[in-house]
Amino acid sequence: MGKVARMLMATPFTTVQRWWRQIFSAPTTDETTTRYRDWRNRFLWQRLRLWLLLALICLLSFTLRDIYGLFFPFAELQQLPEVLRTQRLVINIAMLLNILMCFALHKTKLGRDRPDLLFLGSSWSISLASQLFATITGFALPDTIGWSLLFLSQAVLIPVCWILHLLTQVSVLIYYFGVNTALGLKTPIPGHPGIYNLTFILYIFWFCAICDIGVYLYDRLQRSEFYARQELESAYQKLKVAEAKYRSIFENAVEGIFQSSPDGRYITANPALARIYGYSLAEEVTANSTVIEQLYVDPKRRAEFVRLMEKYGSISEFESQIYRRDGSIVWISEKAYAVRDEEGKLLYYEGLIEDITQRKQTEEELRVFFHAVSHDLRNPVLGTLMVLKNFLARKEENISISRSILERMIQSSDRQLNLINSLMEAHVGEVQGVILQRQAVQLLTVVEAAIADLEPLLERNQATLRNLITADLPLINADPTQLWRVFSNLIVNALKHNPPGLLLTINATHEGEMIYCTVRDNGVGISQQQSDRLFDLYFRGASIRNSVSLGLGLYLCKQIINAHGGEIGINSALNAGATFWFTLPIS
């Protein structure tokens, strides 16, 4: 055979072989997973119970017919051969017993583990029982009705594992044509004694083929649907994992995450955004009927937000002041972009909100600090420099300086040195904390030392100081030098903030395990807003804008008292004086 001829013959053969593999070959390992096989076995086992029940009822109905026919013969059965009319009851009873035995096996472990064997056994117990009886009796039995009911009921009720259906059909047909041909048996049907009948063969072939094709297609459909469900479930699980990750990020984010509608209402908010606005739950933000525009301290900020979004599509570091739920004001920074549909229609805004109040306060403190450095440290240097330049401008070689000028220069240098020392102490205290040299301290002794050192300043400010601290207070474990600084700073602070003629009262009482100390004055007092920030770093009151001070005194007092394990605060109101208080543990 030539090469061309072999190629021409190979092409249709290859096509048929590929078609056969695609349509009738068993699923590959990749296509059929263990999970699907388990599911199919459970399906087969469950449907077998229904099929066995139906087969039992069907055989029972034919058995009852035959019992009734023994006493009242049916005219329609008189045409059957004598052997079938007399022996059909025995055949039906035998098949009934087989079905009952299969019912019993169905409940066992073998029936659960191998439903395929139970399927074959139950099928052969019906189809081959009649064939065996006919062979023993000496004739061939083409049981067209029985086979049709058997194969059709199995295809309808158990439409999986088409190979099993094919095995049950082929086994019966091989027995019928093979054994009967080998034994030379004939059928008891008048006019058609041969076992080979073309109409019968065509009918059985196409009946079995249609049943098997139906089972095969249903099995493939079930397998495809099963894999589709598995993929869908896998995708759903992945989606749940992704959603859980996103939800975790959304719920635990430090920044506020939001979606807002074009008309200015929050659609979505995370817990961080709720905390920024002073709410306990994110749902309260979205459920709140207040429009976003009303949250801004400057109502025009929302319009500016929308204008920038329309112009650029996104914004970054959009800083504004907003009202919290309790009415307090905080600074926020917004970063957002516009979300649009395929047609460009605006759907909503989405972005992040960060609370930058602390940063703004730090910036303000730095601004105050740099102003203090440029003003409070620069002015003494400039004053000293001007005096020295004036002396150098004189023509004489030896220049005489009056004592008052030297005193002013010394005072200016002292102030400059004090400011620099305070700045260094604040920095060291911020980084390392206050270092204490503790010992048993009599509080009265410390206060008297501080008052003695400040006596000239008190006289210059025409102030009166009353010391109500007694010597019977318990000793405290403290650093006397640091406590001296606290009392000195509080007294000096009161003198700086008030006009001359101030009345100061110092007192201390024993309360439980603590000593409660107060420094009270009858001055102008301060507002609640200033009281809240009085102990902050570099904060200076409005009444001492021209003072040569960095605003470190009260901050250092707080550092010292906290280092001792106590607390410090102020009770004051405008035009009602001020009372500084702090506590010290006895031990």
TrEMBL record:
EC number: 2.7.13.3
Annotated TM spans: 50-68, 88-105, 117-139, 195-218
Catalysed reactions, as listed in the record: ATP + protein L-histidine = ADP + protein N-phospho-L-histidine
Stretch forming the signal peptide: none
Record GO cellular component, one term: membrane
Residue span(s) of domain PAS: 242-283
Record domain Histidine kinase: where: 372-587
GO biological process, one term: osmosensory signaling via phosphorelay pathway
Keyword Membrane set for record: yes
Keywords for the protein's UniProt record, in alphabetical order: Kinase, Membrane, Phosphoprotein, Transferase, Transmembrane, Transmembrane helix, Two-component regulatory system
Coiled-coil residues: none
Residue span(s) of domain PAC: 316-368
Described function: Photoreceptor which exists in two forms that are reversibly interconvertible by light: the R form that absorbs maximally in the red region of the spectrum and the FR form that absorbs maximally in the far-red region.
NCBIfam families in the cross-refs: sensory_box
Protein name, as recorded: histidine kinase
Organism field: Nostoc sphaeroides CCNUC1
